[in-house]
Design goal:
It is a single chain. With about 100 residues, the protein is mainly α. It is about 35% helix and about 0% strand. It contains 3 helices and no strands. The protein is extended.
């Protein structure tokens, strides 16, 4: 199942590689070509139906200095052309709420 997912979605037409900061652009290009240059395939077409959602709450505690929060909500189907606008609206809404929370 994991290998099939990898083959269907970790494809050149579905990957974005970004570099920022003080880096050598030519070196980055060389590394990307070395590690990703032989990739082939095209991404699988997503189902136009809604995903099968199952409500769940999972709480894990780890001794780290980071906070990870994953929230989900209903939205348009994944194959909808409106999905990117929904992503932006959703993330902006939650980012605004999270930035007003003090985590200490």
């Amino acid at each position: 199942m994991i290998v099939e997912y990898y083959q269907n979605f970790y494809t050149p037409d579905n990957i974005v590689i970004a570099g920022f900061g003080n880096l050598n652009h030519k070196r980055l290009e060389a590394l990307v070509e070395y590690y990703f240059g032989n990739m082939c395939g095209k991404k699988a077409v997503l189902s136009s139906g809604p995903p099968n959602l199952v409500p769940a709450q999972i709480i894990q505690s780890k001794n780290i200095e980071q906070v990870h929060i994953c929230l989900g909500t209903s939205s348009v189907p994944q194959a909808s052309p409106d999905i990117y606008g929904e992503y932006i609206k959703y993330h902006n809404r939650w980012w605004y709420k999270l930035t007003s929370i003090s985590i200490n």
